[in-house]
Amino acid sequence: MKRLRIEHATGFTYPGDVGASYNEARMTPNSTDSQFVLSAQLDLEPSTGVNYFTDYFGTRVASFDVLAAHSALMITARSLVEVRPRPVEHAEVTWDELAEDAVGSVATVEMMGQTARTAPHAEVAELATRIAAEHANPSEAALAIARAVGDAVDYMPGVTGVHSTAAEAWTERKGVCQDIAHITLGALRAVGIPARYVSGYLHPNPDAEVGVAVTGESHAWIEWYDGSWQGFDPTNNVEIGDRHVLVGRGRDYNDVPPLRGVYAGGHKGELLVKVTITREA
Question: CATH no. for residue 30?
């Protein structure tokens, strides 16, 4: 188990004043069966009131408006979280049993359909189908598919954009964690395995020293359903450990962006993002 302190600062600067902005932030984690949130707060500049709610997929959301003219907007989320590893535990389930179970719940049915972001390239669908045929257990197939995608796609920032699709990233065989998660989701759903997108944070150093602040990152991984939800990080080809802090889940990135909003004014803003993670225990 690790205790991680996370500071995630993000926002926009504008070349001139904008009249108002309306925003939602998904930047603070919730307690789950494998992580315990000791503290979490959100600081805003300009200062304004915040309304908190839990969205449809169970993610904690901060909603706020800035109605006065402003030339910058900065949101800083600070969290202290105790995290335990979440190793994969394959259920004894057949493909027929999974298919019957998956249609019995809205939570799994919604994670079976492709989205515009996850629709797989034909080569990915073929890869997933071939791997699935080699496994009698769909959970074991899911892990093999996720590992295969992780092996096939290189992590490389700058090749894709925030709006890139899984098919586009596969063509390049390069992308960031968001792209690799989308490719994996498309592959799993193509063979009938419910799978969902997970957003959060990752401490980059497995052997992090206590008290040393490092530059971290927002991160994305996936979970598949085999009777319960199993997680895996295909970008790093590792199981979910005590360096992964979960913030939200959804069908794809569109359901869990760290910051979403609109503003009045003709000035285009410049995005600023900085994540700092410190192991405290």
Answer: 2.60.40.2250
Burial label for 59, CB within 10 Å (0-12, 13-18, 19+), is: buried
Mean pLDDT of 247-256: 98
Roughly what angle, to the nearest 10 degrees, separates helices 122-133 and 177-190? 60
Domain that holds residue 224: 95-255
Helix (H) or strand (E) holding 198: strand 195-202
Residue 158: the pLDDT is: 93
For the cut 90, the answer to whether the pLDDT of residue 194 exceeds it is yes
* Model confidence pLDDT, tens digit, residues 7-66: 999 999 999 888 889 999 999 999 999 999 999 999 999 999 999 999 999 999 999 999
> Could you give phi then psi for residue 95, rounded to 5 degrees?
-60, -40
Rounded (10°) angle between helices 122-133 and 138-152: 140
Same domain, 103 and 15: no
**pTM for this one?**
0.96
Question: Which among 122, 198, 126, 127 is positioned nearest to 166, based on CA atoms?
Answer: 122
Do 115 and 236 belong together in one domain?
yes
Structure tokens at 122: 């034909």
Percent of the chain surpassing pLDDT 90: 90
Return the structure tokens found at 222.
């996936």
Angle at 52 between CA 47 and CA 56, to 5 degrees: 140
Do residue 64 and residue 151 come from a single domain? no
Q: Is 124 in the same domain as 190?
A: yes
Q: Judging by DSSP bridges, how do beta strands 154-155 and 174-175 pair with one another?
A: parallel
